[in-house]
Amino acid sequence: MRDSGAWQGAVPAGTLNGLAGVLYRNAEDLPAAEVVSRRGPGGEWERVTSARLLSEVTAVAKGLIGAGVGVGDRVVLVGDARYEQMLLQFAVWAVRAVAVPLPAACSPKRLLAVVRDCRPAAVVLQDGRQADAAATASREVPDLGRVWRLDGPEGLEAVTRPGAYMDSSSVRFRMEEVVREDPAVIDYPASAAGPGRGAVLTHGNRLDAADALVRRLAPALAGLEPGEASALMRLSLADHFGQAALAACMLARVRLGVLEPRADLPSELRTFKPSVLVTGPELLERLYRAESDKARQTGWDNHNAFGAATELAVDFDKAGRKGAWRRVSKAMYEWMYTRIREALGGRVRLVVVAGAPMTARMDHFFNGAGVPLVQVCGTAEAGGAFCANGPGDRRAGTHGRALEGAEVRPGPGGELFVRGPGVFPGYWNDPDASREALRDGWLATGVAGEVDGDGYVTVQGRLRVQACAAPVRPRGAEQAPGGAGPGADAGRAAPEAQSGGGAGGAGSGPAEPERPAAVPQPSPEELVADLERRLRSHSLVSQAMVIGRGRPYCTALVTLASDQLEYWRLVNNRPLNTPPEEIASDPELLREISAAVGEANQAVPPQLAVRAFHVLAEEFTVQSGLVLPGGELRRDAVLRAFADEIEGLYRSPEPGRQG
Length: 659
Prior knowledge:
This protein is of the alpha/beta class. The strands form six sheets. A seven-stranded mixed β-sheet has the order 10-9-11-12-13-14-15, with helices on both faces. Helix 3 links the parallel strand 3 and strand 4 (98-102).
């Protein structure tokens, strides 16, 4: 039995040898338990039992075996957060192969570099965006025997067909041979130029980190019967914390639903009504701004009341004692706090924020408003998570204490160092980089932060894209089969910092690396994709497409979010019958978009900055032929459809002016 206060429905990770083992355990113990929610044929949420999940994973695993995927082979999985990606990842783990997840939006150049580096036996593509790169890779890499696309008429059946003749015992035999030291994942950084280094995570790393997360967060589920808890995740399954959260939900038997990047989140929250929401801080900050805008639109009195309610919630959460006066004052604004909770589905018991840090003020506000929120921090090399706040053990503005079994200490230059069962054994076939990242058992995380006297970690930002600071080794060298290169984490005697005593001293930490850091830089394609994402994060912007190839400078086409236009009209005192075309050329709106462009430009070098933009009144749609069914823009079609507007941008390069 687990520790007191822990979620009693969870599977102890120490009893499992591999990640796929949790599916067998769930199916044997509770075959009718609902463990996943997936999209049905009509787009509705459909619940999947543990028995059905295991059956579908087994079908995919048989297909992998039938296609020749062997023990230790790599399988590259390119896709968004979808049910099919869950099946593929667990199927890869079940056959003792190694998953190499990449987001669906990765560039073809990046996919080709990853394939050249890890030399997989198979590649599974969500759609055709990287089809040309995969075709090139299949000609260059002899090990690559299969390339599947899930957007074809057969979909996932194309993967399962090679194993249709097999008995399920062939998968069970493979799964039972898995040991915790087997590599499970090779995680390539999303923002590095080229493939970066592949961080190898073992089954034990992933299981132990996920188990520690369950132990830290489980008290939020107290009072729920097994089967009642549900989680909605808006993180990529290629993200290191997204994978840790996937494993944690399977261990905890919390029904999990995953959302694609372009999902209508407010609608999904109202429909799904999760007990746990896993997301980045942007969603909550956007929700706060939206509620503030609504209050302002209904009059300044309401807006002032919203501000007062915010201050009361912050003060209430900060206060050690919740006296009667504070409780009464807070109750006066329950109408506003209820709206916040309803916007999150109305049943949220815990919001888990991963990724960028959230400000202490916003942390205090949501918790004071009755939305229990905790921040979590981790890196790929640390198993996805190494510290987290928890219900009853939280300090606003921090990322909590080290997870059970882990230690976190500050080192030279403010870098955080971690050791524990979640720390990886090394990089894929790169012992030099592994030695640079792992110093006498301590992982140099590449993350800057502080640890206070009570052990709470405050993350300040990234020092490096990855843990190692060693130069990237030349690509094209002979690759060793299996996981990390030999000697990846052995034979070192890197001394710890001398100040503060030995490993147990209060200020101790590993020594400063002698070699200068060589930080991999993002490619232009990745920078432009990030620039477009930043533009889309503005509440008025629905879609953004940056144009620059073959042009003297970058420009952008921007479409307006239809659901925000009515709010904008009210706030800016425009008649409700103002046509969208007139709004798109309104000077006040153009100033707002120009400010958003200027802010987004700060994240890219000057040569990639957007110098002019054109606002379009109508959104790009599938019906217009400008958007693929998966939500990706058909860029060539957009360029043809708006050729005149684009040419106009190069006649008037001042941001805010229309072409």
